[in-house]
Description:
Number of helices: 2
Radius of gyration: 16 Å
Order of helices and strands: EHEEEEEEH
Structural class: alpha+beta
Shape: flat
Strand content: 35-45%
Strand order of the largest sheet: 4-3-2-1-7
Helix content: 25-40%
Amino acid sequence: xxxxxxxxxxxxxxxxxxxxxxxxxxxxxxxxxxxxxxxxxxxxxxxxxxxxxxxxxxxxxxxxxxxxxxxxxxxxxxxxxxxxxxxxxxxxxxxxxxxxxxxx
Length: 104
């Protein structure tokens, strides 16, 4: 079992949304030991604790990032997430090998 934190995280879809103060919440689980996060939208990625700071919008508006709970993830679930990230990195290398460096 691996200690993890479930957040309610404010996110913006675009710079235009940010400038107008529009945001939405998404639930996300962060695994500090591996610096891996995954969320209810189906994204899996590496990140760090900085992602979970409050969101600062124009006009000094602060939107809080909330900890919903601390949870223990099963080791086999962590293995699947890590294998997914490794596979994604290997696929990126293959694409770059045949097409050159990918634009972000």
